[in-house]
Amino acid sequence: MYNKKKQFDKRYLLILIIVVIALALVILAVALKKDRKLNPVERVIKDTGMTVLKVAGTPFRYVKNKIDDIHEKNNLYKKYKKLKKQYDKLDTIKSENKNLQNEISKLKKELDLKHLLSDKVECNATIISRNVGYWYEEVTIDKGKKDGIKKDMAVVNSEGLIGRIIKVSNHYSTVKLLSNDNMDNKISVKISVGDSYVYGLISKYDSKTNTYTVEGISQNIQIKENSDVVTTGMGTTFPSGLLIGKVKEIVTDNFDLSKVVKVKSSVNFNDIDYVTVLKREEK
């Protein structure tokens, strides 16, 4: 038993000595002037030292890779559990949604309503062209009249509202982005305040900060930061409930009569590839 332990210790001591020698050889090689060619002996010394270091470092790299794999598997498992919880709720959400749709249909029939502010029909599209000179102004999508696209239809992506249709050909359409500085038509929005909403109008967009300016809000209403800002559905362009962004800052106007709200856009206008065109559902 003692002899085996002694032999084991000697092996580790030998490895340590080899590593120290290899390090010394590498340091010596590095210390040589860079502009001088190495002679045969120096080349052998440098190559030998680097090879020993590589071999000696293999077990450490192996252990490190194994630890990284374990961490990655743990992270994947946590994500899996989170997704599974969401998946388990999916059937319940679908059932609730179907029930709500049935109730809405009955109410519309009872009240003889042609449409609701939130009614919409979707058409998915891909951005095929974006002029660098008009980067924040407009994009072209691969859907047109043949797909039922019409002027002034709302356009969204997975993050929120991005703009509206301004030109339509048979197979293509041009989308005017909300990031356009020339906002000729002010957009009606509502900001959540507790269980109710306060209404205002988007007057401009700042591409440097990716924020909208919302005006026309009463001074005596208390608005919290990070409150949701969505479309009101008033007008013929944007259905109700389309996400614009979240409240970033609240200030007063130049006359100290009403609030001016800075809204951080939910959309990254620098990274848009796929969109959905919305139109009001008519029956």
Considering DSSP H and I runs of 4 or more, what fraction of the residues is helical? 25-40%
**Poorly predicted ranges:** none
Question: What percent strand?
Answer: 25-35%
Strand segment tally: 12
**What about the largest sheet?**
6 strands, antiparallel, barrel
**Net shape:** elongated
- From the alpha carbons, calculate the radius of gyration and give it in angstroms: 32 Å
Tell me, rounded to a whole number, the average pLDDT: 78
Order of helices and strands: HHEEEEEEEEEEEE
Total helical segments: 2
N-end to C-end Cα span: 91 Å
Number of domains: 3
Structural class: alpha+beta
Strand order of the largest sheet: 1-2-5-4-3-12
Give the structure's gist in a few sentences.
With 283 residues, this protein is α+β, with helices and mostly antiparallel strands.
Protein architecture, described:
With 283 residues, the protein is α+β, with helices and mostly antiparallel strands. It folds into three domains: 113 residues, no CATH class; 56 residues, Beta Barrel (Thrombin, subunit H), CATH 2.40.10.340; 79 residues, Beta Barrel (Thrombin, subunit H), CATH 2.40.10. 36% of the residues lie in helices and 30% in strands. The chain contains two helices and twelve strands, in the order ααββββββββββββ. The strands form two sheets. Strands 1-2-5-4-3-12 form a six-stranded antiparallel β-barrel.
Note the main attributes of this structure:
single chain; 283 residues; alpha+beta; Thrombin, subunit H; 6-stranded antiparallel β-barrel; 6-stranded antiparallel barrel; 2 helices; 12 strands; 36% helix; elongated
